[in-house]
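Quick entry between incubations.
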Amino acid sequence: MAKKQLVRVKVNGRERQAEVEPRLLLVHFIREVLGLTGTHVGCDTSHCGACTVVLDGKTVKSCTMFTPQADGCELMTVEGLMQDGKLHPLQEGFKEEHGLQCGFCTPGMLMSSYALLQHNKKPSEEDIRWGISGNLCRCTGYQNIVKAVQYAAGKMELGGAK
Amino acid sequence: MIPPAFEYLRPSTIPEAIAFLKQYGDEAKILSGGQSLIPMMKLRLARPAYLIDINRIAGLSYIKEEDGHLKIGGLTREAELEHSPIIQSRFPIIRDTAHVIADPQVRNLATVAGNLAHGDPANDHPATMLALGAKVVTTGAKGERVIPIEDFFVTLFTTALQPDEIVTEIRIPLPPARSGGAYLKLERKVGDFATAAVAAQVTLDGSGTCQHVGIGLTNVGPTPIKARKAEAFLRGKKPDEATLRQAAQLASEEAQPSADLRGPAEYKKGLVKELAYRALSRAVERAGK
Amino acid sequence: MQQTSPEIGGMGHSIKRKEDMRFIQGRGNYVDDVHLPGMVYGQMVRSPYAHARLKSVNTEKAKQLTGVLAVITGEDLAKANLAWMPTLYFDKQMVLATGKVLFQSQEVAFVVAEDRYTAADAAELVEVEYEELPVLVDPHKATDPASPILREDREEKSNHIFHWEVGDKSATDKAFQDAAVKANVHAVFQRCHPAPLETCGCVADFNSATGKLTIYMTSQAPHAHRTLFALVGGIPEQNIRVVSPDIGGGFGNKVPIYPGYVCAVVASLTLGRPVKWIETRSENLQSTGFARDYHMTAELAADRDGKIQALRVKTLADHGAFNAAAQPSKFPAGLFSICTGAYDYPNAFCEVDGVYTNKAPGGIAYRCSFRVTEAAYLIERAVDVLALDLKMDPVELRKKNFIRTDKFPYKSPLGWSFDSGNYEAAMNLALAKIGYAALRKEQEEKRRKGELMGLGVSSFVEIVGAGPAHTFDIAGIKMFDSAEIRVHPTGKAICRMGTKSQGQGHETTYAQIVAQELGIPAADVVVEEGDTDTAPYGLGTYASRSTPVSGAATAVAARKIREKAKKIAAHLLECSEEDLDWEPGKFFVKGAPSKSKSIQDIAFAAYTNIPEGLEAGLEAVDYYDPPNLTFPFGTYICVVDIDKGTGEVKVRRFVAVDDCGNVINPMIVDGQIHGGLTEGLAIAFMQQIDYDESGNVQGGSFMDYLLPTAVETPYWETDKTCTPSPHHPLGAKGVGESPNVGSPAAFVNAVVDALSHLGVRHIDMPITPWKVWNVLKEKGVVS
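Done. Structure below.
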């Protein structure tokens, strides 16, 4: 049995820690040790992006990281998007623009869109499509997801959440 | 989906990392971006008993112009290259390349050094570095080595790296004025490896004749390919359409693609010919600016 | 139909989805989110060989690994008569292999361990000895005497499964003999896979104290699955509860019963602990129900002026190693006989032969409406080929042959009665939207310059809403569906249906039907599906049947409630029922509208002021047996540009005009269209599950089984015409699969059209850049 590693991560603003097998994939740490099941597993070859989370401000595929790599980092999952009980403009946008159907890709899409809007406050349609090109969706054909992100960008420009 | 068990090591300095490499030999693997290694471990195709996580080693992440070279640190991420103002304005060929590697999430972790060190002819940076005449700087138990990029790729998944060496820097000679480059990749979809891709870098003299030409080919052979014949042909000539087409034809003849799910060998050769023409044209256009 | 206000949100309103709140917060409840105390994990061990004798399965090493609780083999299952299970189509398949394996990735053993990681380690330690056998992957060789016989378990030692035919062969043959023009096309609809983003899985939880087995399962048809578990497993049906929680996409992938479910149930029964089994993506692509694999030839006979006289179709169907096609029992080739399409002609004959090969079982999946995708693709390709032969514009040819509006209900030459249709209207709207005439001009100019651009038209007829009891059953269970509505004293309602959404928005759309019929705001109506302990019996959601069948049941149940409500209203208003009129949300006295009672008042009275002779409460249940299927339709037009240097095809524009009758929620319908068109795009240009000669899967992971990203996906332009179904209580038709049915032909027709001046008549999907490039090279067009 490999030597366990103590991992300390700040998750959605809260300090969490656990001793884990080094090979524990970050996505399993999030889902099963932290109990945050919003982050999903959709494939086994790092293609689908359903596991996308924001680590130290950058999106990563949590299925393609080992938990010890996140030691000392700040992790945001979809559960951390709402602030003070209020929906983030992105969450509002997905609802208003019908940007989801089965909901399985949605957390990953929200995370990728969140990161996109941090770096690009006025993304064009092309920017958005490139920005979510690491997230696969089977239900929506992406069209309304683009609209959802545009909605959020508009709202945030008017002084919504950050 | 689930990788086999391994011991996790996290050195804080390069000498520590190298010591681990020496200690554990071929039972150990370096973990930097991990975006090639971890998927292989999840499929149980790679089974290192020791994983050496070098991501916390300070001072390995930089993009700077120094001593006549563009220097990229061994832990510089693809996303940093993609968004770097230096790269965007002065090395668009590198920005072209970084932009088409995998997808945004992977680019946040994947490193340029890793993209070279993995020895996969399907990776994108090798062709670009061949076109730019880069040098790979490694640090190992015996100290630092500077390996010219043409000597770096040995065969499939094998580079000139010694088992105790880490790629710590990539050095690209600053191109002279009137230089331009481009990287064009045809992929089945965003995130795929290239069906074929071509990197082209040219320098024109005052009369518009090609002085320096570098052409690299992606995923059309067991290693990334430097299209030397095409380069030699184009050197000293004016890059008009007919000449560029001929150079592209030569480049396609230097490709040794295998048939796979991306297409038959003949198609890939035809693709190299077309992409080489387009990449050279774009490079010439950029050189003119 | 009376219009409701936006506050009530009945038919036609694009109200925002009620289910979204939990998903946008990451608080959905998918099967892998289910965590029960004491839960353990199962993992399959699978065959690397496509065809081999199973010499031995040694589980000792695996069992010795710390944390391993059990390793189940086919031999173990055989003792309980469970090594084989019935498929949904008159065949059986191995749960865990005994004797031999028949496809790469077939299930051989099931490891159960305390955690996922130990299970994965243990799976590697199971030692299986195989003796390879010759492999059969070419369905055309299935009946060759030289080919190996795959199914030794069957009495008839043959790889031929069925022959099915329909239509008038002699009349059709005569029509062909007499025909002035004959066009033919051989079109292969390649094997592909629906690949929903969530893979299949379950948590089987047998409680030994109560004797109850609860199965949380990715199931599109929970009741049918419950009954099958009872019949096959010998567990009393009242002690089985199937719970289909949130499902991350189905597309037909979650209709069959997979060995993983059965093994998880067996393990839970044995261990008395909850057993979770979640397959990986590779397992999903390589072993669960594939789609298509139809090798089809269509011939059209026509007059010189383009009037079609007959259709003749011959198809070879590759079913893989077991016939696990999930379709109505009387239809071995599903509803493929809709292949006559939108056109009016007297003669047709269609035959299909199904064969076994060393590949994974399946066939009915990926939004196919039971083989309608194959049928629509075939006829729309054939019509385009006929147009080429006649040197006629493909739009003109279609319009010449469309079934006229005065011919409905239309009896097709293969026996279907189309309830309604107006094909020309949909076509005209699509033509106007795309600007067809201008595009043809542009194409002419481009051709002069050697540039390649194409227009592809597809006018499809769908057939959904299975189906009437006299004709439709799956494994014997008739294909009715159900709705149960209960109105609370405070005027809110709860409904349960026998269908199961996997993203189609049922929590919203069914609520809208209730809102329409009863005037209770959709926001006040809770909709639940998927728990067999509470929902009325239904056949589930697939083949676009929910709105046609369960939607009808919902309307009928709501009308039963309205009937009772009328009695209560009369009692409250002290008048007779004949004096009352209805508008959504209230009964009022004719001529005195201020004398009214709202549905909320009535609901309260149902519990507090019950008229004599009436029972308390305000609820109803309906099991709806549809009198016919419904026939959505549409015209799709696609514009493509081809890069001569690389063979890449770029979709410049795509216009989709759909007619699904009366629409419940236009926003949701458009979303379905966007998603289905994207799947059609993937099928047309990038997807295939293929096998090499040794039976190794090519495209068994997302590395090579390609799903388009937002970058490859074009902008979809959608519009509607409305031809209500005359027999559906709401005039609605169902639409979820129309885009998958109609689009592949639009894409392929566009590419062929771009190259037809070079003599190209057909290219098989997936139309990859190298296929196009090869054609260009062959025609001397590549530089």
